[in-house]
Amino acid sequence: MKIGLFSDIHSNLNALQVVLDFYREHPCDEYLCLGDVVGYGPQPDECCNEVRKFATMTILGNHDAAVCGRMNYAYYYDAARNVLDYHARLLSDENMEWLRNLPYMYKHSEGFTICHGSPIEPSEFNYVFFIEQALQLLPHFKDLDNVTFIGHSHLTKSFALTEHNAVDVTALSITFEPDKKYFVTVGSVGQPRDYDNRACCTIYDTETKTIEFFRLPYDIEGTVRKLFATEITYNFGKRLYLGI
After folding, report:
1. Backbone angles phi, psi at 227, to 5 degrees
2. If I label 197, which of 88, 154, 213, 244 is the partner at 20 to 30 A Cα–Cα?
3. How far apart are the C-alpha atoms of 171 and 160, rounded to whole Å?
4. In angstroms, how far is the first alpha carbon of the chain from the final one?
5. Are 41 and 11 a contacting pair, CB within 8 Å?
6. What sign has the CA pseudo-torsion 202, 35, 113, 21?
7. How many domains, the chain?
8. 44, pLDDT greater than 90
9. For 45-79, b where at least 16 C-beta lie within 10 A, e where not — what string?
10. Is the Cβ–Cβ distance between 40 and 10 less than 8 Å?
């Protein structure tokens, strides 16, 4: 079975369309979205429409939770909070209801878990992108699936865990070893932060136990023009150009 995994679209329809076109050219058996369809970008409602049609399963992200009233985002910095308030006005009733019913986590029959952040208290949306954060998962080692796919950090960070240690794994393709457990961050479609401004998506082959990362150029300038045409005053476009 081949499974497409993607995350953190953040209302960037131009980037999302490139990723979906890639998947249509490289068909998978399932497509799993790991959350944060909304936030930051110019087209939250359109992105919800596309993901709802395309994805087999979508997991709730923290921006999704904030915009639909499932978490308190008063502590977010002003620019992000203002965008979420704006997006709440843009979303259709149907898409708002869809977000309200998304799960925090999903355990797949192929022996892996998907969630937006850490699977330990998933409603807290804790990050796992420093080695120290990966080491904090060791007390839960026996409860973890063989592989956990996450989003949230907008990075392409991976960790291999044994019962007593965790190590960084950096590669465009990772084959999972049977005596280890893995945490894989699948990158961001619409706002990468690993200094590569191309959209990111992945394909996991359950037969070979291998995940591949793909980077896809898209029309960043077009997205930035759309941003400037909205009520969003903060220059999120700079982040898109720089990949930060």
Report:
1. -60, -45
2. 88
3. 12
4. 33
5. yes
6. negative
7. 1
8. yes
9. bbbbbbbeebbeebbbbbbbbbbbebbebeebeee
10. yes
Dihedral sign, CA of 122, 31, 128, 83? Answer: negative
Per-residue pLDDT tens over the stretch 13-27: 999 999 999 999 999
Report phi then psi at 143, rounded to 5: -90, -10
Question: Strands, E, within the chain: which ranges?
Answer: 2-6, 30-33, 57-58, 105-107, 112-115, 147-150, 158-161, 166-169, 173-175, 181-185, 199-205, 210-216
Rounded-to-integer distance, Cα 225 and Cα 134, Å: 38
E strand residue ranges, 52-209 = 57-58, 105-107, 112-115, 147-150, 158-161, 166-169, 173-175, 181-185, 199-205
Among residues 146, 137, 122, the alpha carbon closest in space to that of 71 is found at 122
> Phi and psi (nearest 5°) for 158?
-135, 150
Quick check: helix, strand or coil at residue 162?
coil
User: pLDDT-derived band of residue 237, with 50, 70 and 90 as boundaries?
Assistant: very high
| pLDDT band of 170, cuts 50, 70, 90 | confident
Helix (H, G, I), strand (E, B), or coil: what is residue 192?
coil
Task: Write the CATH number for 13.
Answer: 3.60.21.10
Task: Give me the sheet containing 2-6, strands edge to edge.
Answer: 57-58, 30-33, 2-6, 199-205, 210-216, 173-175
168 by Cβ neighbours in 10 Å (0-12 / 13-18 / 19+) ranks as exposed
Residues 6+ apart with CB under 8 A from 109: none
Q: How many Å apart are CA 18 and CA 109, to the nearest integer? A: 29
Q: Which amino acid is at 178?
A: P
Task: Calculate mean pLDDT across residues 131-139.
Answer: 97
Q: How far apart are CA 135 and CA 144, in angstroms?
A: 13
